[in-house]
Design goal:
By secondary structure, this protein is an all-alpha fold. It has helices at residues 10-20, 25-59. The chain has a domain at 32-59. Helices cover 70% and strands 0% of the residues.
Length: 66
């Protein structure tokens, strides 16, 4: 896997280290990014399920009132 170097604010990295409970700045930032990406995937999956459920409801024939 390719590696990328990024300069970050030290306070931001220390906060990431504290919140993740990791002593390495590299590992802390990597954990935060992985969590962010996984959260995005979970959100996408949840929205897709909701949209599919709405499509199923829309497909059902409606009762004619009269």
């Amino acid at each position: 896997m390719a590696k990328v170097s990024v300069s970050l604010n030290a306070d931001l990295v220390v906060e990431a280290m504290v919140l993740s409970g990791v002593g390495s700045p590299q590992d802390a930032v990597e954990l935060v990014l992985r969590d962010y990406i996984e959260r995005g995937h979970r959100t996408e999956a949840r929205l897709a399920e909701r949209d599919e459920a709405l499509r199923v409801v829309d497909m059902k024939p409606r009762d004619v009132e009269g």
